[in-house]
TrEMBL record:
InterPro entries given in the database record: NAD(P)-bd_dom_sf, SDR_fam
Source organism of this protein record: Apiospora arundinis
Lineage, broadest ranks: Eukaryota, Fungi, Dikarya, Ascomycota, Pezizomycotina
Name listed for the protein in its UniProt record: Short-chain dehydrogenase
Keyword Lyase: no
Coiled-coil intervals: none
PANTHER family for the chain: PHOSPHATIDYLINOSITOL-GLYCAN BIOSYNTHESIS CLASS F PROTEIN, PHOSPHATIDYLINOSITOL-GLYCAN BIOSYNTHESIS CLASS F PROTEIN-RELATED
Length: 336
């Protein structure tokens, strides 16, 4: 009932973005389609100075850029008068399934941008069957390990922005209410990451848990960052946002019954991509009070009971994740 209330009632209450983003530089990953693209439209409409569309496919990214430019060719200023859009929109390559691409993107952010005010780690995927990328199950690589590798790589620029411009940047990680739909069967394993990557386990009877688990791990990680770096001593706000079930290409690889079931559910209750994008933009403008928090329906919400009741698992996962990131790029976890 809570899910249906969120999708059918709370959707109507999602605030339409109206803040000014003049002077700000905003990066959105996974922004050539769906929620990311719609969020980009809002930021351009509201006068962001610079917008970076981080995409895997540059051709699709440039097509999205042109569409955003056309859609926001003129915007309303604070007085309600129509004026020309002034946002500079760039398209940068980023493939979350490849650590080298994530590292190259992070280096480019550091080298080419003088500031980053809002960073949306929005790229993610649902896989219909077991596959591997960078030695892990693909969803674990994209939705979890690469997401936090990217976060670690861009945090120095966010912190520098805070110091130089006396502001508080925000790093928003797109999560999912799906994280509530698993009891996390691998949590009892001695080494959890190998267990969530095990093709005989994750790829077998527990495959239905794999996407929820990949998102659950991210909730644990953000809470670990907040535990290690509390709000009052940290210059950046890091939060999570669940956009709800939306019409998007997230499950574009679904097949057979899974595809039919997901299509029926979306037809019945899904938010539009624009409505879902409002939750992303809302999270991007939230105060320090949202640091380490999980947001849904444009307000702070409680994550699943599995998260709240397994602090020891959270601590073990944080140790494992940091070790994994250090193996990819030594020293990177000091950026947290």
């Amino acid at each position: 009932m809570g899910f249906l209330r969120s999708q059918l009632i709370e959707t109507c209450k999602l605030p339409y973005p109206s803040s000014s983003y003049a002077g700000q530089t905003i990066i959105i990953t996974g922004s050539n389609t769906g929620l990311g693209k719609e969020a980009a439209c809002h930021y351009a409409r509201l006068g962001a100075t610079r917008l970076i569309l981080a995409v895997r496919n540059l051709e699709k990214g440039h097509a999205a850029r042109e569409d955003i430019i056309q859609t926001t060719a003129t915007v309303d200023d604070e007085a309600g008068n129509e004026t020309k859009r002034t946002t500079l929109i760039d398209v940068w390559e980023l493939d979350m399934a490849e650590y080298a691409s994530v590292q190259a993107f992070g280096a480019r952010v550091e080298a080419e941008l003088d500031r980053v005010d809002i960073f949306h780690a929005n790229a993610g995927l649902v896989c219909p069957q077991y596959s591997r990328a960078e030695g892990n199950e693909t969803m674990i690589t994209v939705n979890y390990i690469s997401t936090f590798l990217l976060a670690a790589l861009v945090l120095p620029k966010l912190k520098a922005t805070a110091a130089r411009f006396a502001t508080r940047p925000t790093l928003v990680i797109t999560s999912s209410g799906a994280h509530e739909h698993t009891k996390f069967p691998q949590k009892a394993a001695t080494n959890i990451l190998p267990a969530v990557n095990d093709p005989n386990y994750a790829g077998g009877a527990h495959w239905k848990d794999q996407y929820p688990v990949s998102k659950l791990l991210g909730v644990f990680a953000v809470r670990s960052i907040m535990k290690e770096h509390p709000t009052d001593s940290y210059p950046v706000t890091i939060n999570l946002v669940s956009p709800g079930v939306c019409h998007s290409e997230l499950a574009r690889g679904a097949e057979g019954f899974q595809k039919v079931a997901f299509s029926v559910m979306k037809a019945a209750v899904a938010r539009t991509a624009e409505q879902g994008s409002r939750t992303l933009v809302h999270a991007g403008v939230q105060s320090a009070a949202s640091h380490g928090q999980y947001l849904a329906d444009c307000r702070v919400a409680q994550p699943s009971a599995v998260v709240l009741e397994n602090g020891d698992v959270q601590d073990r996962l944080w140790v494992e994740l940091k070790a994994k990131l250090e193996a990819i790029q030594p020293g990177v976890t000091s950026n947290f």
